[in-house]
Amino acid sequence: MSDRDGATSTRRQASAPTTVLLVVTVLVTALNLRPAVVAVAPLIDQIRSDLAISSSAASLLTTLPLLCFGIGSLPAAGLTRRRGMTTVLLGAMIVLLVGIVVRLVPSAWFLFAGTIVAGLAIALGNVLVPALIKRDFTGNAVGRLLGAETMMISAGGAISAALMVPAQRALGWSWRPILALWAIVAAAAVALWLVLRARRTPQTPPMIPVLSTAVVPGMWRSAMAWQVTLLMGLQSLHFYAVTTWAPTLFVEHGYSSAQGGLLLAVAGFISLPANYVTPVLAGRRSTQHHLVGALIVLLGTGYVGILAAPGLAVVWMVVIGLGQGVGLSLGHSFFALRTRDAEATSQLSSMAQGAGYCVAALGPLGVGVLRDLSGGWDVPLVALMIMLIPMAVAGFAAARDRSVTPEGARP
């Protein structure tokens, strides 16, 4: 497939084996969009001890990728128009592979540098994988594959949380080569993109590009666009704050490091059905206040539960996992539900992910700082509960039956 392949290539001319290969490639790529970040969490105590760094410094291993998610999403449209979506996605997976391997070098600088490189690569995947699905598939296949893609993203995070410590104990390796195991999955994605490019023939560029470099007038001045952006950013803030620090919190409450990782994995696996069901429920009503309410109640209940009865951690992580599943899928659903055309959808997605992940980066860092200052977990948990308030305000506003248009929000 050429760098500037057209939307009609898969829809009308691609063979069934090539279409199957495309689906597999998309799903394996999606599987790579979280482990390089999430896999750090179960090992963060070892990393802190080995590198002699504080909780605040260790939290940068999750904060930096989130900043990269925001910054790296901005050039995605321009790169796609110049190089083609397939080439950019192939390049992103190669860069991700390099970032993971670089972290093998026994130096804190290379650990942070590799994390930044991996974060920039994942940012491109976050934006372009859904765009490729919309370009190359039609009808109900789009919704099904988008749902499967979201589930694979969550599954990658859950699997990485569950396997890091058990794999380390089974293999007897240090944390660096254990983190590098995810290079195998990244290499598989690279291989699949290379095979796919070799199988597909050159086509004319699509008449209407999926990602436009033109700014939709009024998008950044639209209250509705900012409400969607804040919801996206704040639900991600909660996700990455929990992902980064939950294993450490549970270890300090008497659980083993393996149990801490498994408890984080519970939330990830429980989120999968919520990932799939939430977009369906969101599309059945013109407003989505019920889903925003469910998101707030689930996360709030989980935080209060951990604070009051940490011995029931598995129950609270189930509740939090359901909330995380609702939050991620609802944020993505609003990209389409709050816009009227494909150009506005792509621009809102870019804005919400670009600015939203910069907001989300405050979560892991803020929790780490509060943990260092307070010497415990009560203050960070209370802070997360307080952060549910602005998320509720933004979410209930975004859930109204309004649209972002080229002129701004519909009155």
Structure notes:
Helices cover 77% and strands 1% of the residues. The chain has one domain: MFS general substrate transporter like domains (Growth Hormone, Chain: A). It has a two-stranded antiparallel ribbon. The chain contains 18 helices and two strands. It has 411 residues and is mainly alpha-helical. α7 (85-102) packs antiparallel against α11 (183-199) and α12 (223-252) crosses α17 (362-374). 55% of the residues are buried. It is globular.
CATH fold-level name? Growth Hormone, Chain: A
- Uncertain parts: 1-13, 202-215, 406-411
CATH class categorisation: Mainly Alpha
Task: Work out the helix count.
Answer: 18
Structural class: mainly alpha
Could you tell me how far the N terminus lies from the C terminus, measured between alpha carbons in angstroms?
A: 44 Å
Number of domains: 1
Number of strands: 2
The ordered H/E elements are: HHHHHHHHHHHHHHHHHHEE
**CA-based gyration radius:** 20 Å
What's the assembly state of these chains? single chain
What's the CATH H-level superfamily name? MFS general substrate transporter like domains
Beta-strand percent range = under 5%
Sketch the major β-sheet: 2 strands, antiparallel
Give descriptors for this structure:
single chain; 411 residues; mainly alpha; Growth Hormone, Chain: A; two-stranded antiparallel ribbon; 2 strands; 77% helix
In terms of topology, how is this protein built?
Blueprint: H1 8-13, H2 16-31, H3 35-38, H4 44-51, H5 55-73, H6 76-83, H7 85-102, H8 108-136, H9 140-171, H10 175-180, H11 183-199, H12 223-252, H13 257-283, H14 289-308, H15 313-337, H16 342-360, H17 362-374, H18 378-398, E1 404-405, E2 408-409
Antiparallel strand pairs: 1-2
Helix pairs in contact: 2-9, 2-11, 5-8, 5-16, 5-17, 6-7, 7-8, 7-11, 8-9, 9-13, 12-13, 12-15, 12-16, 12-17, 12-18, 13-15, 14-15, 14-18, 17-18
